[in-house]
Design brief:
The chain is of the alpha/beta class and 358 residues long. The protein is built from 15 helices and twelve strands.
Length: 358
């Protein structure tokens, strides 16, 4: 998004949080302001972010403010009103439907009240898929524009000498990638599917990224003695992640519909797999299933238990001709499912702010 805005003549500033483990990030297309925080979670974490972000937005030189998700909307709304600046609300999920909010009554009350107050004020709202757009339209009678989180188009370039540590060249790589290694993503069941009794052979499960379930997942691997079959790698820069993705055999996205946000999610990793020509094993969430079946890029697994997941993986790995067809379909779909096409909507939305400024 920031790259697109820069190409339109904006000078983007990316504002966010910096943790001790945060990766270095200094892109050429934008300035970056990252605040170190005293608190890592809970009420004090969000209160600190709201206050510090508000102070920053009140003094930073800007012509337009963009709030990403509900947890930045309050300071953005206040600053935009005080400074008489336009505001765009870009909501990447159905925020009050995420597990940490939906399953905790007090948090649901606080964030729900905040959303009910602020959402009707918004004039320009973006979101990531049509299902979430329809939920908000029904609730607030607002029109939302859909901009999916698609990667830029690229042809996958496989390095013949690139080898993932701990994985032999003849072994298939079953990949889960991304920053959302959270509870309810089906990764626990995927790990258990690697137990020898389920019959997945000559394959390793590679899990790249981080999330609130990472500790639980590593303990699960230890408890079932699956160290030789499951490999963890830390969060990494996107270009490096693309190399590992291109080396994989199957890309997995088996989120469970434990909340409304997961039910209607459309994970970034799905499109990263497709861009890399990686056949997809996915759960039957409506937005995900629609993409997989429309472009014929993989297999839908209708159950979330380890045996069913293992059965689907074995079906995929045993049919080399079908794997080849799925891969070819992925590469063809990537010509459509890319940011170069999606950003045309962004240019229309933000183009009027450039016109107004001039």
């Amino acid at each position: 998004m920031a790259q697109t805005l820069a190409s339109m003549g904006f000078s983007p500033i990316l504002a966010g949080v910096r943790f001790p483990e945060s990766l270095f990030f200094a892109p050429q297309y934008a300035r970056v302001w990252r605040m170190p925080v005293l608190f890592r979670k809970g009420f004090l974490f969000y209160a600190e972010i709201q206050l510090r972000l508000l102070i920053y937005l009140l003094w930073v030189k800007t012509d337009l403010i963009v709030a990403n998700d509900l947890d930045t909307l309050l300071p953005a709304q206040i600053a935009a009103r005080i400074r008489n600046k336009p505001l765009v609300y870009d909501t990447h999920e159905y925020f009050t439907g995420v597990p940490d909010v939906a399953m905790r009554p007090l948090r649901r009350l606080v964030w729900g009240t905040l959303e009910n107050w602020l959402f009707p004020m918004q004039k320009t709202i973006l979101t990531v898929n049509h299902s979430i757009a329809q939920l908000y339209q029904k609730k607030y009678a607002k029109t939302l524009l859909v901009v999916r989180n698609l990667p830029r188009y690229r042809k996958p370039a496989q390095d013949a000498y690139f080898q993932i540590p701990g994985i032999e060249k003849h072994e298939a790589v079953i990949l889960v990638q991304g920053s959302g290694l959270n509870k309810g993503r089906g990764i626990e069941e995927l790990i258990l599917a690697m137990k020898p009794e389920y019959g997945i052979r000559d394959a390793k499960l590679l899990i790249i990224g981080d999330g609130n379930a990472k500790k639980l997942l590593t303990e699960l691997v230890h408890a079932h003695q699956l160290h030789s079959r499951v490999i963890f790698m830390p969060r990494m820069h996107y270009q490096q992640l693309c190399e590992y993705t291109s080396r994989a055999t199957i890309g997995v996205s088996v989120d469970k519909p434990i909340c409304i946000n997961y039910l209607y999610s459309l994970p970034n990793k799905l499109f990263d797999y497709i861009m890399a020509g990686l056949p997809v094993l996915a759960s039957d969430l409506p937005e995900v299933q629609s993409i997989v079946e429309k472009y014929e890029v993989g297999l839908i697994c209708g159950q979330h238990d380890p045996a069913s997941i293992a059965n689907c993986i074995n079906r995929m790995l045993s049919d080399r001709d079908q794997l080849k067809t799925w891969r070819e379909n992925c590469l063809e779909a990537a010509k459509t499912l890319n940011w170069e096409r999606e950003e045309e909507i962004v240019k229309v939305v933000y183009g009027r702010f450039v016109a107004n400024k001039s």
